[in-house]
Each structure stands twice: as C-alpha cells, then as structure tokens.
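#struct-help
A.M.: can someone run this one for me? Single chain, 554 residues.
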Amino acid sequence: MKKIILPFLSLLCLFFSVLDLAGMPQQQANPVSTVDSLDKNWLNWYNSDSKKTRIQGASVNRAYEEFLKGKPPGKKIVVAVIDCGVDINHVDLKGRIWVNKDEIPDNGIDDDKNGYIDDLHGWNFLGNGSGENIAYENLEQVRIYRKLNPLFKDIKSLDNVPADQQNEYKTYVRCREFYEREQSKFQILRFNTEVFEKKLNEAESVIEVHLDQTTFTERDVYGISSTRPYVISAKDFMIGLYSQGFTKRTLPEMKEKTTLYLQKYLNLEFEPRKIIGDNPEDIADIKYGNNDVKGPFPAQGTMISGIIGACRDNKSGVEGVAQNVELMVLRVTLKGDERDKDVALAIRYAVENGANIINLSIGKTFSPQKNWIDEAVTFAGIHNVLIIHEAGNEAKNLDEADYFPDNKFLDGTKAENWITVGASSMKADKELCAAFSNYGKQEVDLFAPGVKIISLYPGDKYGTSFGTGMACAVVSGVAALVWSYYPELTAIELKDILLASSTLHPELKVTLPNLKSLEKTKVGFSMLSKTGGVVNALEALKLAENISRAKTKK
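D.P.: on it. Structure tokens below:
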C-alpha cells in the first residue's frame, strides 16, 4: 500500500496547481457565524501598521487613530464591485450598499431611463428577465476554440491561411492546444483519483476493523501498535497522506473540482449563455440581465465588499478599510471565465451611475473583445473614475504574460486611471510576496495584503480567503478612504498618491512566486512592481493633505 503514496503526492500537486485556473481565489470551506473560532492572528491584519506592530498591513488603523481623528469626511465615495455578486443583506454591510435613488423599487419600470429595470443596487449581467441566473461558464479558451474550430479544423499550417486570418488562426491554435492539454490532464486526474479512492477505502477499512470503530482521527492512526503487516501498511499509508496535508475534505474537493472542469469549464457542449437570450458578440445588445445582484455564488464579492467597507463600529470583528463609502454591485463573473461584453457594460454602468472607483477582482488569459473593454476604460478615464485591478493568482510575470482586463490598449497606449495590485503577506521576510501572486516591474503597480484575509461571507457569516482579488480590495478601500477626505483630487492624482506613499522594502529579498516547481529563487521585492512597495493609508493621507493644500494655494 506504500507504493500508492508517492503517485498520490503528484496527484495532490496537480490538484492544487489548478485550483485557481478559473480565476477564483480559495475561500474557507466552512464559514463561521462569528470570528471567535477563526485565528485571531489574522483578524484585520490588513489594517495594521508595519512600524507599530511589524505586521505589513496597510496602516489603516493608525490613519484613523492618528490622522483622521476629529476630521469630517468631505464626500461619500461610491465603489463599484464588479465581481460575482454580493450578499447585500449581510449585517456588516448595513448602510454600505449603494441605492439608486432615481429608481422606484420593484415596480417593473425603468424609472431613471438608464436602460435597466429596477436596478436599485446595481445590475446582474448573468441573468434574464425571468429571474434565472447562470452560475457556470466555459473558460475563454474553450469558447474561442468552439467558435473557430469549424473555420480552421482542417487547416494544418499557417501557410494555408489567408493573411487577414493568420492572427485569428494563431489564437485558435493556442486555444486548441490549451483545450487538448487540459482535457487530457483532467481525464488523467479523474482516473488516478478513482484508483487512489479505492486504495484509500481499503486502508481506512483495515484501520476501522483494527480499532473496532467506524470513524477514526489522525491521532488514532498515529497511536496504532500492531505486528500485522497489513495494519502497519495501512497506518504508514495514512500517515504519509497526513504529512502532506491530506484531510477528510481533500478527496471530495478533488472529485468535485475534476467534475467541474470536465463538465463545465472544458465542455464544448456546455453553452449556458443561451438562457440569457442576448448575443454576447453584440455590444449594442444590452437588453438582458436582472437586478439579482447576489447571484448563486456571492462569496468572493461579499468578502471583497467586507474588506472595502465593512462596518468598523458594530463589534462584529471584521473592520473594513473605508467607512464613508457605498458599494455598487455589478455581477459579471461566475465559476468559469467572464465575458468581455459583460465587463465592458458593467464598467459603463458604474461610470454612468456615479461610481468613483471600480474594483475589478477578476481576470483571464484571453480577451477576444478587448476593444469593448478598452472603450469602457477610456470612458471611465474621461469621467474621472479610478479602476483598481487584481494582478492575478498564477505566479506569472505580467511583463511577459497576458492577464485581462488590463490597461494596455490595442493602439499601444495605456490607461492612466488604472492600478494593478499584487498580493503580499504579513511579515517583511522572504515570503512577503505571496507565493501565488502575479508580479511585474512594469505592469504591477504595488502590493497589498492578500494572504489569509478574514472577511465577510454570505449569510451573516465570516471566512478566510487569499488572492490578489483581496489585495485589490484593500487598495480600493484605501483609495476610497483618501478620496472621501480629499474629494478635490483627480483620479490620476489619487493613483499617483497611492503609489508614491507605499511602504518600500528596498533591501528585502523575497521568494519569487512559483507554482510549477519547488525551486526557490530569490529576488529583490523592489523588482516585483513599479513602486516596490505595499499600499499605506496613513502615508497616502499625509501626501494627499500636502497636495490638497498646494492645490488650494494656486
């Protein structure tokens, strides 16, 4: 039975390497009703100050205690959370949800004539007028492969493709290779998981008989004493798994994830968009969606909302970064890849309905209608809206790899109203840069706390999560905090302030993010982003004060 352990370790590595392939961070599997049962060392650490506590947070608490005490905010900032939906009724978001005051609730009429009926708190671009929502989608590569396969399936060489179709053919080949590789990977994973499950059941059965009990704990296994070879073999097998982090949840999670990829993400026959009734390749077709801003899987959006603006004074435990804030909810993501059309329309909705900041904790590696998003981002810039985007969770160098949406327009120019955020951890040591975080000296602007973040979970619960999406929310919160006290700043000025005031670690060497091997490469933290820093609310407020005074004197 020992022989199955090593192959299973490879199986575990494969499993954990694909967890974030669809762009979703990991969240706590068992959310809790209060934060009391969670690790207090991680509670609100993103608000801590590195000089006062040595915890590499965003210095939010010091900002409130030492700089903002007695100062009234000048403006309520609206942050659009473009994500998978939000539980807007969470007790810690009371008073924090944006309300469209020009819309009469639930009367079936587009009162404000903005094109969306009963959009009281935002809009759900993943549903239809009958209240149906889609929860799963293909990966973008699969959608592209399905679309282009009839055109290119019989072509064997680029030489046989007309010049005006060659770029499209190259994209097709990349997507086809991705599809075939991932399909094979998950079919093998499914087969190996079935083999492993059989061996696991055999080992557990031996131990149950030996202990004469139907369930057992890890401690029970370590305490087994026997001279019977098959019992010792079963014990060694289980201990080998425990040493690699195996728990009761690991196998069911592996089976569920494998099924999800094969039946949804990679399934060419799976086309859920049909229930919405729109043409996803027509940006002018906007008569779709509904006002269900929660959706079927609102965990990530709820956590992000909690980081940005959870109530600090209700003694629930979780303290949001910004308080004079309202959250506009726009649902565009699900389990799978979002559509460019939905993202573009959500950005436009946010701008047209008064958002000041857009939080984009979303991303994928292909963007077939990128021009639509470019136009929406330009529209946001014209209207003084700041966009804050996650760097992504694939441990890639964004100076070399694509991650969409991004601030690089198709014409070669860049959006100035855009911040890209990597994820950092609690201590200023070799692990300061999160192991999963994307990075890039040219394309990532700064880092923010994104590891073991305790925040809100749907149903008035709480959970722990990690990801650059969480880091993105910290920066959105800091941006909203600063802007609420200095509303005279422009979006570009606010961006420059956040970057210039970040906490630097010029001499620190960190482990370069790497999810594909055990290789540990050291690199200067300053080389992983433009600033080489971690967002700092206190220093940002001080700099904003100076710039505001200088503007007033002019």
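A.M.: thanks! Confidence is low (pLDDT under 50) at residues 1-7, 15-25.
D.P.: also worth noting: The chain has two domains: 31-135+279-553, 142-265.
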